[in-house]
Specification:
The strands form 2 sheets. A 7-stranded mixed β-sheet has the order 3-2-1-4-5-10-11, with helices on both faces. Strands 7-8-6-9 form a 4-stranded parallel β-sheet, with helices on both faces. Helix 1 runs parallel beside helix 9, helix 5 crosses helix 6 and helix 6 packs parallel to helix 11. The chain is elongated, with a radius of gyration of 22 Å. Helix 4 links the parallel strand 4 and strand 5. The mean pLDDT is 95. With 328 residues, it is of the alpha/beta class. The protein contains 11 helices and 11 strands. The structure holds 6-O-phosphono-beta-D-fructofuranose. 6-O-phosphono-beta-D-fructofuranose binds next to loops.
Length: 328
């Protein structure tokens, strides 16, 4: 493949996600395949500004495809949001002779990459890595599938104790602004109700629905709540409200938190990461820049970075209906 790119830098940034290591491995091995140098950049934009770099060859990424987290570490950087910070990063890249970047992360990562590209005309390619699945231009972000499986396992366990004690559990799952995880795990975990930011169920309807199911003979219930839900109360206030307004249940809260971001990536995420890494390197070598690689209809697709960060992915309304019918 004819090209002028000889050295590619790769980094992970923002919240980590299972599959990031598999994506790093794929970028490193794709570079090795094309005989170009790959430089690992530690701690995202922080390491980029400090020149925290290490050369990576094909063997340096052995044994990581199955590992959660990111061997390159991750960070959310305030300094990179400043012009001075980005200038520092540009200087470090020049010093190291790096002529293109692969950025693995979510919308914050891509926003930084986009500004950087606009200021310095530096070739960048994005790989969407976040458990939230909130990036436009891909049906799945890296880590989304694994996180869902982790949460479903947790819900199954909570259900065991919920049914032993006739309890109603509110389970909070991640998803800063979107309800993708909540909606899917709610269905897979047999939740009574799913509260997501995209739909305002309202407190009265929630209590009404829980009362109805209690009267229909259910002795325990699970309500999955996306952390970004806009019902107007945090999960503990929600619990108190339901405790005061309905009888028959002992109510408990379980906030799953960061355990959702850890663990060995699923087969789906490993394959997706491998495909995305190859596509990112191929695209840079073809002279493309300022795109994110994504999965659409089981094909790799490029989306301009500015489109990827515009707006939020829409939830599938059919899933809401399925959830309603299943909780009958
Ligand atoms: O964006 C991924 C995510 O895990 C969100 O679901 C969550 O709101 C956020 O990151 C948590 O961020 P931090 O790890 O900085 O607390």
């Amino acid at each position: 493949m004819p090209n002028k790119i000889k050295k590619i830098g790769v980094f992970t940034s923002g919240g980590d996600a299972p599959g990031m290591n598999a994506a790093i491995r794929s970028v490193v091995r794709s570079c090795a395949y094309y005989n170009i140098e790959c430089i690992g950049i530690y701690r995202g934009y922080e390491g980029l500004m400090e020149g925290d770099f290490e050369s990576m060859d094909a063997r340096s990424v052995k044994g990581i495809i199955n590992k959660g987290g990111t061997i390159l570490k991750s960070a959310r950087s305030k300094e990179f949001r400043t012009k001075e910070g980005r200038q520092k990063a540009f200087d470090q890249l020049n010093k190291a002779g790096i002529d293109a970047l692969v950025a693995i992360g979510g919308d914050g990562t891509f926003t930084g990459a986009l500004v950087f590209n606009e200021e310095f005309d530096f070739p960048v390619m994005g790989i969407p890595g976040t458990i939230d699945n909130d990036i436009v231009g891909t049906s799945h972000t890296l880590g989304f599938d694994t996180a869902q499986n982790t949460v479903v396992e947790a819900i199954d366990k909570i259900r065991d104790t919920a049914s032993s004690h006739n309890r109603l559990f509110f389970i909070e799952v991640m998803g800063r602004d979107v309800g993708h995880i909540a909606l899917n795990v709610g269905i897979a975990g047999g939740a009574e109700e799913i509260l997501i930011p995209e739909e305002d169920l309202g407190l009265d309807r929630l209590v009404e629905s829980l009362n109805k199911s209690r009267k229909s003979g259910k002795s325990s219930s699970i309500v999955v709540v996306a952390e970004g839900d806009k019902i107007g109360k945090n999960i503990f206030e929600l619990k108190d409200y339901v405790d005061e307004n309905m009888e028959g249940y002992d109510v408990r809260v379980s906030v799953l938190g960061h355990m959702q971001r850890g663990g060995s990536p699923s087969c789906f995420d490993r394959v997706l990461a491998s495909r995305m890494g190859v596509k990112a390197v191929d695209s840079l070598l073809e002279g493309k820049s300022n795109y994110m690689v994504g999965l659409m209809n089981n094909k790799m697709k490029l989306t301009p970075l500015d489109n990827a960060i515009k707006g939020k992915t829409k939830i599938n309304l059919e899933l809401l209906r399925v959830s309603d019918i299943m909780s009958t």
